[in-house]
Amino acid sequence: MNASEILRGYAAPLNPGGDASLYGPPPWHFRGRMLTLFLRADPQAIAAHVPAPLAPYTKPYVRVSTYEMVCDYGLGADFAVRRPELAHFCETGVSLFVEHGGLLGNYCAFIWCDGDAEISVGREMYGWPQMLGKMWLTRPPYGRTWQPGDEIASLVSRAGRTILETLATVERDGDLALDLPPFLDFYTMTVLPSPERAETERRIVRTRMQEVRQDGMWSGRASAKFHAPELAWLRDAEVLGARTNLVSWAKPYGTVIHREVNPVR
User: Fold this and answer.
1) What is the 3-state secondary structure (H, E, C) of 112-146?
2) pTM over 0.85
């Protein structure tokens, strides 16, 4: 019996017991809470970050979301309970609203995360461009829910440098009235360098989330500061407002809707 027959598991690292993989197969189950800011940005700047064959949504809006989550990583409900040091993570994403073939969705342009399994599956499989970072999100007041006047802050850093900061003030129960695509269809792009030559394979993946729930929603006014050079184009964007809510969903396998190979440039 050779090594390929002995080694087991879904993703690297593999071992004879099949229990060393960093993550398991979909569906992955997520639950937690989030703070989202919505911005109106320069349409040309948005278009410059949207890869073909996706097209920017007619409204030049950007979504900046910080999550505090628990995930089973496809390893089962017991894993999420018994391995909290691995199942708990935080991440912050900058997403653009796009469409393809008449289907509206979210395209994640930048994202930072503090969990290795989430980073690995994002970059290897789906195409979320996750990078290692640290982030903090204000938790609800002790002993009660949010109420008007409460403030919620988030801070994101990477390698000791601040990426972005947000501050929201709760004003009302319920969502903002922005008429945007729902938290359902997500577009991502894997960029896989070739180990043989100076080229990369790009894959655009569409994933439709399942069992989506958003509860305990509050909204209000907000402000943001963008420090990272890759986010400089957002510094003059208009902040339309913010919302905070509980959220849960299941992430299944996605669909590759486009694939191309490009020389490195």
Assistant:
1) EECCHHHHHHHHHHHCCCEEECEEEECCCCCCCCC
2) yes
Question: Tokens 């599956």 label which residue?
Answer: 121
Report the candidate in 89, 126, 133 with the shortest Cα–Cα distance to residue 111.
Answer: 133
What's the mean pLDDT in 37-43? Answer: 98
- CA distances 112 to 37, 89, 128, 149, Å, are 16, 11, 10, 29
Q: What are the extents of the domains in the chain?
A: 23-263
User: If you classify domain 23-263 with CATH, what class do you get?
Assistant: mainly beta
**Using alpha carbons only, how large is the chain's radius of gyration in Å?**
19
Alpha-carbon distance of 91 to 112, in angstroms, equals 5
Tokens 């690297």, located at residue:
12
pLDDT per position as a tens digit, 218-253? 999 999 999 999 999 999 999 999 999 999 999 999
Q: How far apart are CA 259 and CA 103, in angstroms?
A: 18
The span from the CA of 10 to the CA of 144, in Å, is: 42
Provide the 8-state DSSP code for 62: E
Terminal Cα distance for the chain, rounded: 44
Question: How far apart, in whole angstroms, are the C-alpha atoms of residue 208 and residue 29?
Answer: 13
The contacts of residue 129 (CB under 8 Å, 6+ apart) are 108, 109, 110, 111, 122, 123, 188, 189, 191
Written as one letter, the residue type at 54 is L
**Distance, CA of 99 to CA of 70 (rounded, Å):** 29
154-166 burial code (b ≥16 CB/10 A, e <16): bbbbeeeeebbeb
DSSP state for residue 235 in the 8-state scheme: T
